[in-house]
Amino acid sequence: LAKTTQPISMDSYEGQEVNITCSHNNIATNDYITWYQQFPSQGPRFIIQGYKTKVTNEVASLFIPADRKSSTLSLPRVSLSDTAVYYCLVGGGVSNDYKLSFGAGTTVTVRA
Amino acid sequence: DTGVSQDPRHKITKRGQNVTFRCDPISEHNRLYWYRQTLGQGPEFLTYFQNEAQLEKSRLLSDRFSAERPKGSFSTLEIQRTEQGDSAMYLCASSSDRGRYEQYFGPGTRLTVT
Lengths: 112, 114
Fold this sequence. Notes:
The structure holds 2 protein chains of 2 kinds.
Chain A: E1 9-13, E2 18-23, E3 32-38, E4 45-50, E5 53-56, E6 61-64, E7 70-75, E8 84-91, E9 106-111
Parallel strand pairs in A: 1-9
Antiparallel strand pairs in A: 2-7, 3-4, 3-8, 5-6, 6-7, 8-9
Chain B: E1 5-7, E2 10-13, E3 19-24, E4 31-37, E5 44-50, E6 53-57, E7 65-68, E8 75-79, E9 88-95, E10 104-105, E11 109-113
Parallel strand pairs in B: 2-11
Antiparallel strand pairs in B: 1-3, 3-8, 4-5, 4-9, 5-6, 7-8, 9-10, 9-11
């Protein structure tokens, strides 16, 4: 059973807000929700992590409802350089949980 | 630059040859990971070191693969008798004890086996 489910692809235009929702119905009590970004021919880059409610940093915001069964990554005012694959992962809440399990991710394409 | 570095960035080899990749993690990170990524897929976990101890190996890591992390610093990943199916991007990442899911990835080594 997949730990997370997210859309395969999303299209947007420069200046718009992009929201990617990830479903994780079986999230464990100790699990964190973590998002990575990957550009072609580069390693993934950690962008944000949260446990509950809302987290914001200079790159994105992460919204987590009370039941934690889903989360939404929000990218404000995207530019062409935000075109990338975005991965949603859950886990990391216990000391022996360190293997990142990437799915296929969401390919976000930003157009001019 | 204090990020994770990998060398070489690209490697083309003939089937049956041995190859070795190097990873230099962020200096204060004691955890080091290797992943493999094929086209169109997310990275897959291969192995994990805490300091110099290799604590886990994925079943993807056949006996032709070996990884080391002497003195808990840099790490090497060696593939013996390469096969065409080994062609992939090999990614190294490091993290602190607290940031287990906050891993910092290097640029990867792209291996092509001809």
